[in-house]
Amino acid sequence: MTSFKRSFGDSHGSSELSSKVFLRSSKGKCTKIVRELYLRRDIPCSSKICTRCLADIKGDSYGRTKPFVLSSNAPVNDTIKVPHYIVPDTNVFLRCMDVLDHAAITDVIVLQTVLDEVRARSLPLYNRLRALVASGEKRFYVFHNEFRSETYVRREPGETINDRNDRAVRRGVQWYHEHLKEVARDSGKSIAVVMVSNDKGNLEKGKRVGVTCCNIKDYVSGMKNSDELLDMISAALEDENAKAAKGDMLYPEYYSMSKMMTGVKAGTLHQGKFSISPYNFLEGSVHVPSFDRPLLILGRENINRSVHGDQVVVRVLPRDQWKHPSSKIIEEETMTKNDNPEVEQFEAIETEQERKALIDEAKLSQGAIGEGKPQPTARVVGVIKRNWRYYVGHLDPSSAPSVGGRSQRNVFLIPMDKKIPKIRLRTRQASELFGKRIVVSIDAWDRTSRYPSGHFVRSLGAVETKEAETEALLLEWDVQYRPFPKSVLDCLPKEGHEWRIPQDPEDPRLHQRVDYRGLLVCSIDPLGCQDIDDALHASRMPNGNYEVGVHIADVTHFVKPNTAMDDEASVRGTTVYLVDKRIDMLPMLLGTDLCSLKPYVERFAFSVVWEITENGDIVGTKFSKSMIKSREAFSYEQAQLRIDDKNQNDELTQGMRTLLMLSKRLRQKRMDAGALNLASPEVKIESESETSDPIDVKTKEMLETNSLVEEFMLLANISVAEKIYEAFPQTAMLRRHGAPPASNFEELQNQLRVTRGLTLLTDSSKALADSLDRCVDPSNPFFNTLVRILATRCMVSAEYFCSGTQGYPEYRHYGLASEIYTHFTSPIRRYADVVAHRQLAAAIGYEPLHPTLHSKDKLEGICSNINNRHRNAQMAGRASVEYYVGQALRGKVIEEQGYLMRIFSNGFVVFVPRFGVEGLIRVKDLAPVEPKSEFDAENYRLTVEGSTGSWSVALFDRVVVKTPVHLTGSSNDAAGGTADEVCIGQSATVLHLRGSLQFWKRWVQYRMHLAISVSIAIKRLSVEFLYTPDTSGSAAANFPQVMGHMAKPG
Amino acid sequence: MSRYEILSPEGLRTDGRRWNEIRRFSAKMATTTAADGSSYVEHGNTKVICSVNGPIEPRAANARSSERATITVDVCFAAFSGTDRKKRGKGDKYSTRPIKSPNLPTYQGGGGALLMGRAQSKRRVLEMQSALSRTFASTLLTALHPRSEVHISLHILSQDGSILATCVNAATLALVDAGVPMTDYVTACTVASYTNPDESDEPLLDMNSAEEMDLPGITLATVGRSDRISLLQLETKVRLERLEGMLAVGLDGCGKIRQLLDEVVREHGNEMARMGTL
Q: Which residue, A952, A956, B121, B238, is most buried by CB atoms nearer than 10 A?
């Protein structure tokens, strides 16, 4: 008889352990977890000087092995004067990832203990670390110390898990130390191992066991570019020791996670995404499901260290503290310009000035009782997830150093994104960084500190240079702008530009491809377009119907799934168009040549061909991969001229006329179904051909041909959406546009009713479209478009989604009034279209679908990425336009009409359609001394007491603005001083369009769509924009400052 | 994303093994005298006791066949074997009724083996019993004992993945101990298919429970030294082109297990010779 006793002796060679843990869940259920660990001796040290470990290299199932990573030529610096590898502990990775990311740090051993801890604490940091290891450039190596028998550490009774892990790290370092010593005997080359930590206790214990230890700061300060690296060390690390000393807490403490969760579950607390008002930095709001209107969060104490974008938990304040949203503009820059970054003001979180601003606010909202209910207010009690990223900005000139030198000092960084508060930065390079665009990251926001603290990441270059501004903009909108790596370029066809359609009809690439080369296909695009996605044709069929074809570039023929090129495209998600630059999603060779449906050459295409009756009814649809030969590439203007020219009667022109006729029918049908007409004409920047300096701004025109192309693209997208949904009900890539909640329109409805007596119906898209059509003012042709802009801003944005994640009714595209929609027609510049192409190809049986497109999870990941990229690309494009508008108008005197879009108690926002930008005019800038003003909130009317009598402006009014050259000097005073001279004869009131483009930027973020504006002329005011030439020393002027002068209504 | 990396980029699994390594394997034969043959197998942390009675007079009428012996299998999970202690209800006596090999309905078993409801786990047990009895029906020389029954009873004391495979191995040993005539050893192991970040696949030999939870995998049994497969079970979805690689690794794994079983049997034989039992 043998016993059942555990048979340790039987195992061969390796000793293994298993640990048994009993876990008790919150419900009292007991769970037993047993984990086995197989300790081994064949995990290599991966040092290139080591010959002993070579035998331990084991391949994977394909026999692939990984070469050794750690260099035989290890780095040396002033702190550690011998060649060495470093072993950072968990805290160093968590706090100083940016330092480790720097090119100066190489040959790093990442212990498994540390890696697991990093993973448990922060997945993003873990992913960054894994990417560093995978790239191989910086020679990071993951050593699985927990699996090696010599380095495994058993937890002692009574030892905390942290102590055990620290011990495991020390043990690992010790082993490396001894191992490399032995290796040195063979090779004669000695390399030390240094444990880098920030924990005093750990360092001391390390020294005791004979491990070379070093504090991260000491380590970095021995390096060549130590100043730069020292700045990157997280402020949080430094504060850890100092924190205990400070007694005064400025902000209320956050609730514990469990308390928040319980509260949210019970409905006493609410969770949502925090956003800051673009006009008032002390007013935030949170959208929560249980309230149909957003919860207002007023004042620093209530905002309680939340930053725009964070996931927060809030507590609703009692009803008597409910307020109206702000009708006043409060800017952080002016409010807090005297704060000293070196000294923390302890007296209060809110300065006297801020409190006054808020009290004024409160009075105002109390006064306006008549109108509507006050909005619920709330206080932030905790943050679930910070949404911090890198921020681009410039140093606050008011915190400029009085003396130069390299001593460390605190400075403020003013982020470009005005919704982000100032960030306190400790730096040794302050004097160099002034006047530069710099990238920083926020580390922490303590209760003791009024501002968040962060650290320097890198400098982009001087403020207002084209390169720095462009890069800043790309960084701020997270656009991938680095050149394509070699692995991507390797995926391109070898023939390069010489690639041709195969002539041999037996070629496998022509398999199942329809030959449409005989058709009269042409493309219509904006002038100068190189990446031609689409081409069209139309012809009359014998039965009287029309055959219409849309041919889309066959990108998926070149971009195969699961290649480096495909991965890169899916990360980029979209091509980004800036004024002077295009950041491609696909390499140039494909985008502008091989895929592009250029005229006179044969290209592969993916075609949708319909049979359409004279009335625009669709009789049949065919999808096929094809070959085409475009006869001509028109610009919209050329196409329009050709259609209008009665003398041209060739077949191609006839085809285009047919297309135009059918497109009008289709458009009418769409309009009848309730599609919204929210056209968004854009601004075009004209630049000098050689220097590409912007010289003028023009509004883009809308021609009939624009809508011709648009109409057929919509039709193709809808047809494809139906087809791929039918084939893949769970995983089709679709696009939806949700219906906006009625409460979004409340404010606009009220404004229209009060000022014009108009009503806006929002029950359905049809009702909205009809009532928008009725919003006209005979005396002002622009009014309708202005209302359309405002209506557009009330809507939610369209998004890509995977069909399995929503119910069919949710697929609806509100704006287009279509039941189902996708993007198919621009695969060169949008990744969603690439996915749709693959799915359509599979749906028609052309090729099997790649497994990644079968997986709902993968698709959801793609969707959320491209939604994000798409939005960012739009924002970056607009920000670029606005920067160039500023550059183009610089130093010119232009008079232009503008329209009041929003009105506050102390200022108003003017939209200038010709430049496509908005500007803020504040009452206090109208004259040297702030004129008295009265705000009638119910009627949206602001009356200003000028020096020669009062005048008033109301919402939707037309004004005229002018842009004269301005003098230097401290902005406010100088503007006031020149005002009287400029405004001829009239006792002038002066407007400042302060902050100018920089300020407009934050509205850009606020609005999703920029549409045309129309307006009603009630008052005619003359306003002037003044551009300050770059005020030397004032780094605040990241864009030319715009000043405004306004004269009395004439 | 799971809490652990199932396979780290360095090629190590959660418990420190590489892709082609099986867990610690130890086995004993003749652990109880109450049955004709018995065995105890520990495979990693999966532990199974098996006892075999037979050939005996069939206990139920429907287990009688005039041509061959029928093989009946009982599988019983101990209440303490999993992560949660199992509460057993009234109608839950699934281990009492023996299952006859032919005429069995086949059941669709679910994946995620360990965390199943009662109804599903009952079904799963039925399926295991059926799979085991079919596997051994093809290897035992049942025609030598018509109108009799070979009863295999398996008790799972601890579950940590590859349970069916361990049951097969334990049953093989117990059948050898009982002296039931058979052509060769039936040995089994499992293979998972891991998807690398670049979509290439990596077969992982011998799944533990964490891997079983996260990855698709097959259970595979072969007869003797040949690559003849007598059991192949796939409870989850896996891409067809991966199956071949998984099978190749699994066949090697079964060969390795066969060696281990063979050692155990020879050791046991020597022991018996020393004790003078033979």
A: A956
